[in-house]
Amino acid sequence: MKKVIIAGLFFTPAFAFARLENVSDIVTSVGRIINICIPIVAALALLYFFYGLAQFILHSDDSDAQKEGKSRMIYGIVALFVIVAVWGLVGFIGDALNITTDNPGNQQIPGVNIRP
Fold it and tell me: How far is residue 84's CA from residue 91's CA, in Å, rounded to a whole number?
């Protein structure tokens, strides 16, 4: 039963993108969705950091609330670091493999150009 559920979840994106003609369109659509989500997630991590900072400052008389605020600030900073690091790593790998993201509607499936 678990295999059926996993297979169903695996093929769900194919059904959702059924109107798309080829794999290039699917890759382009997923790339656009990710490009929209990355700044939103980074902004949420920044807001979480500022929420922890406000909690740390406003509850300066309560040590438990200060500890909670400090841990929220640390988690916010770690989340921002991970988001930016992964974003940069993906960009670096894309440059190293010569995968371009300019004008995704008119390009072929990303590939590797081997230089002699």
Answer: 11
- pLDDT digit string, tens, across residues 53-93: 999 999 989 889 999 999 999 999 999 999 989 888 887 88
Task: Please indicate whether residue 103 or residue 79 has the higher confidence score (pLDDT).
Answer: 79
Residue ranges making up the domain that contains 89: 21-106
Owner of token pair 């921002």: 80
**Which residue, among 35, 37, 25, 36, has the nearest Cα to 110 in the 3D structure?**
25
What distance in Å separates the CA atoms of residue 25 and residue 108, rounded to the nearest whole number?
9
Rounded CA gap, 89 and 73, in Å?
24
E-only strand ranges, 1-116 = none
**How many domains does the chain divide into?**
1
For residue 113, is it within any domain? Answer: no
